[in-house]
Amino acid sequence: MxxxxxxxxxxxxxxxxxxxxLKGQHQVPVLRGVCLSAARGEFVSVIGQxxxxxxxxLHIMGLLDSPDVGEVLLGGSRIDNLNPAARDQLxxxxxxxxxxxxxxxxxxxxxxxxxxxxxxxxxxxxxxKRRHEIRHAALSILQQTGLEHRLKHRPAELSGGEMQRGAIxxxxxxxxxxxxxxxxxxxxxxxxxxxxxxxxxxxxxxQGLTIIMVTHDNAIAxxxxxxVQLVQGRIQPAEVETxxxxxxxxxx
Amino acid sequence: MYKLLLCVRYLKTRYIALACIISVMLxxxxxxxxxxxxAGFTTEMRDRLHNFLADIVIESRGTxxxxxxxxxxxxxxxxxxxxxxxxxxxxxxxxxxxxTDPWSGETYTxxxxxxxxxxxxxxxxxxxxxxxxxxxxxxxxxxxxxPALRSREEPLGWELTDEGEKHFRMVQERNRLLLEDRQxxxxxxxxxxxxxxxxxxxxxxxxxxxxxxxxPATTDEATMSTxxxxxxxxxxxxxxxxxxxxxxxxxxxxxxxLGEGLVSxxxxxxxxxxxxKIMMVQPGDNVILSTITSGTPPDVTKFQATVVDxxxxxxxxxxxxxxxxxxxxxxxxxxxxxxxxxxxxxxRLTDYSHAPRVLAALEQAFPPGMVNIRTWEEKQGMxxxxxxxxxxxxxxLLFLIIAVAGFGILAIFYMIVVEKTRDIGILKSLGASSGxxxxxxxxxxxxxxxxxxxxxxxxxxxxxxxxxxxxDVLSWVTGRKVFDEKIYFFLEIPTHVNxxxxxxVAAGAIAIAVLASILPARRAARLxxxxxxxxx
Lengths: 252, 536
Ligand SMILES: Nc1ncnc2c1ncn2[C@@H]1O[C@H](COP(=O)(O)OP(=O)(O)OP(=O)(O)O)[C@@H](O)[C@H]1O
Ligand SMILES: [Mg+2]
Hints:
The structure holds 2 protein chains of 2 kinds. By secondary structure, chain A is an alpha/beta fold. Chain A is about 40% helix and about 25% strand. Chain A is globular and about 50 Å long. Chain B has a domain at about 1-45 and about 380-535. The interface of A and B includes residues 85 and 174 of A.
């Protein structure tokens, strides 16, 4: 791709990350020394079969989980061993999460859902002082995602595509540096999924947002700058792919 | 901010939370109602105990009493005169009362507490006038069935009312006739004279002529057999004039006010089906009192007394044991009149809060060992502390109700936390801290507690305010009296709302709600974000 940015230092790095789960008596390794990094403004996709540990990797990089072995570095400094309060702060300020099942809070309206990260960031008093500013930020994000006519709706009253766009809006409202997307199109039909991918690509290009996206769909993965594969707990670095390349490799 | 928002939303969208609110509400309302009624009863009971006892009582240690009432009262006055509003000399002595039930003709003897009083003085240390039957209208189910026989202005004394006088004369007349009968037709049974008795007895409800007429005869016999050789001549007392004379008899020297409970019983009126109070002795009747003289060793003394009035203080213990008698006669019969001896002095203070000071001053004024000086509270200490213990136990039990509500909250909260597991994961992925998640559920508990308590306080106070109306409705629905004023001697259910009680009950309920939410809240806070997100 032509628009590959100059990548000097990676923004986020997973270094030799290992993670295993206890299944009964046995330690079942899921990640065995995964190395993955993304530079600022890069759009990396991770593909892998179901159960290969993609979500696990994403959770570790987003500080929702900790690696058994290995490190997570943000801008060169280690973040996986920080205290809980600092991790909470990083999750709120630096990372934005998108999930396959949207995970909007059912009791809140779409607008409230989108404002949640900022409500978490500020105290009641701080929120009250900035309420117009915050509302404005949420509204403009919702406008970007094309949901300005659904503000008062509860998640249950929205379609899957709308919910996912709402989730993206929520992930973005706090102006994160890195967007971690776990199968954002996994639960949507092809057309709606393509719309979501367009949105992500646009955010990547226009705002230079760093995106790490997990998917098991090669076609979706191909829209990224770079695609890597997670096989048997290890990353197989792959060159930049097109959709054609992907098909070829599958045949091989 | 999200904490508050989510907490409010969870409250609004979870109807199960309503169950928590209602259980807290019911607990709080019950506690407030029960406490208010208990406090009402206690206050009322204390008032009644207090009213009958005066503030401070000086009692002699022995049955002989203390000599020279005037001198003793002078001594009291000089010791603590400025605090004392009124005082009255009294003789208190246990005794027996014998009277005849006109309905069955049987003679009863009951243990009594005879109190020799000066009615005017007694009325100054306590509300005696309010208790006396003749000064108050007779009420039945809240409606007046007989107006007061005496006006409130009439000073207290030992005179019979017109009705009492009439009854007295009727009884004397009947006795005279019976006596004549017996003297003329000796050997044959005394045949009542219906022609003469009938008009008088028509006024009495459900009177059975035979029983009523037979009654005086038995009294007569009892009197003659028991009080023959004593200083009291029964016949002479009964008919202070000669049997043959047709002049009206004069009531006896000894006059008494009878505790109503001593001579009354409740019976169902066959016509109306209502419980009715039946008086076995009424003003104008004579009864026999026996007690001991003040000598050493004491002798038994018996005398007849004319019932002038009945009283009801509302304290069952008093109403079913106390006989109030004119002080001078009691002194005479007990041989105390020469020394003007009394057994106790009842004192009313201008302000009860001075009691400890007065007590100390009086202790100084009397020689040690001569008298007991106690406040009414000390005198009734056992009863009062029993009531206190009862209230405390009741409160503990009732608080357990709220504790049960607390466990309900705990269970329901646990359910909600489980249900909200994924949302908790989401919040954590958005950067919410464990403390933040915990405070959602803690404030949820607080919100439930506050809402439930507020509703409970409101309903409880409303219930207390309209308790008598509610009682009426309940009585109407169930068809029987829930609160029978004839048993409790209250026209209305007494209540007393202590604001501190209300506040502490509400605060306790809120605290329990918060405590019950701590465990689920901690669970929520400790949830691992990934595990929460993966939770199905
Ligand atoms: N809490 C856990 N305890 C035990 N095993 C777990 C746990 N969480 C995940 N695993 C296992 O780890 C492996 C990786 O799970 P993960 O969700 O990361 O896979 P994935 O690549 O995201 O799969 P999918 O594409 O289906 O989402 C799976 O085999 C799963 O069974
Ligand atoms: Mg997954």
